[in-house]
Structure formats: structure tokens, C-alpha cells
Amino acid sequence: MRIDKLLANMGYGTRKEVKKVLKAGIVQVEGEVIKDGKTQIDPEEQTVTIRGEVVEYKPYLYLMLNKPQGVISATEDNEHQTVIDLLAFEHAVYDPFPVGRLDKDTEGLLLITNDGKFSHALMSPKRHVSKTYYARVRGEVTEGDVLSFKEGVTLEDGYVTKPADLTIKQSGSVSEIELTITEGKYHQVKRMFEAVGKKVTYLKRCSIGQLELDETLKLGEYRELTDAEYSLLMKDE
Ligand code: URA
After folding, report:
1. Nearest atom of ligand 1 to the alpha carbon of 102
2. Are residues 48 and 163 in the same domain?
3. Per-residue pLDDT tens for 36-78?
4. Are 77 and 191 within one domain?
5. CATH classification at residue 200
6. What does pTM read for this prediction?
7. Centroid of ligand 1 to alpha carbon of 15 (angstroms)
8. Are 130 and 181 spatial neighbours (Cβ–Cβ below 8 Å)?
9. In 3D, which of 65, 67, 46 has the Cα closest to residue 57?
10. CA nearest ligand 1 atom 2, residue
């Protein structure tokens, strides 16, 4: 790995700032001053210091984002802004990717990481990690729908959904609900409501497993997961 990338990853500034740090001659690898940002190093094997202080190497990044509408859950897109475009340089240099997808018009909790194992553990259909959504729905959501969702509804392609937990928060011509599902089919929540003749007009993911969205994050804001939050998600691994 290039030394400039390592230092940027570890939070020692933007690429430009890192260049300055290197130029100042205060960075050493195994005791030898390194000024060229292109120098390849092995952070697992070699000790890097800045002014004599050891740079701790952290290979993985785990972020929770409050995804706004209008951005795509992908790493690249020719037309639209992606969730990765919302990240600061010091996080983007980890080459992270979103864990699963939220639709362009869905808001809320999205995890972003560069740890493939972590992502796979959460996405694996075998693990049935639950996801809870808040939705506004056009049409009156009824106790009948609660029962139907518990038993499983048939989507338009014939797929029968796994039991899901529907709570009605407010019922009327526009209803408010919370829905917990344990699978992640394409447009699943929207299609489940279509299966009972209703339309989701607003959708937000509130939690994944035991991890809840930090409501102090404004739309488009993100932060690193704490160790405790990471453990919550990985506890069955
Ligand atoms: N279900 C949907 O319909 N859309 C999402 O973004 C997530 C779940």
C-alpha cells in the first residue's frame, strides 16, 4: 500500500495535507525517513511513525449513514450522486461500498464498509437479519394486513414473503406503519404493500438487527460505528 494512502486512511489529512507531512521529513518507516508518497509499505509488517509516534494501522472502516432521497446505493453511477460521493476524503480512501441497497427514494440507515466479510454476514439470506422500516402508505392499513404480512403475502412475481411484523401507527386514508422483515428482496416493502392494494409514499429504514439509526444524524450525515454497535451486529457470528 502507498504510504500517502495509508496516512490519509489513518486520518492524517487529505492527499494534499499528507504530501506536506511527508515533505516535512517527519515520517519514518522502520526508522528511515520517507518523503515520497508513492513509497510502497506493508502496514501489517512495518512500523510507521510521525515525529516518533507510531501510526496505528486500522484496515477496516464501518460507517452508518442517514441516507437522503435522491442518492444511489452504489459506488459509482454515471448520472446520479452515490452514497460514496457523500463521504469525506479520509473515508472514501478506504474504497468502501454500501452493505446492500436502499432505493433511490428511500431514506435512513445504510451501512458502508470495506469489509467484505462483515457485509456478507449481514446480507446472507441464511442469517435472516431483521430490518425495520417506517413507511407512509396511501390507503387504510388494517388488522387484516397485519395478519396477511404475518402469514406471508404473494408478490406480483409469485414469490411468497416470509413472516413479517407489521405495526399500525396510524390508520386512515394515509396510514403510518412500522414493518420488520427478515429478507431483502428487490423493492420488498413497496411490493408487499402493492400485494395488499396499497402504495408506499415514503420509506425510511430505522434499524438493522439490533442497530438503530442514530437520529442525531441529519439526512446525508454519517459517523463511524462504535465498537459496541459493531458487536451488536456481529454477535451471532
Ligand atoms: N424495501 C423497499 O421497497 N425499498 C427499499 O429501499 C428497502 C426495502
Report:
1. 6
2. no
3. 999 999 998 999 999 999 998 888 999 999 999 999 999 999 9
4. no
5. 3.30.70.1560
6. 0.88
7. 36
8. yes
9. 46
10. 187
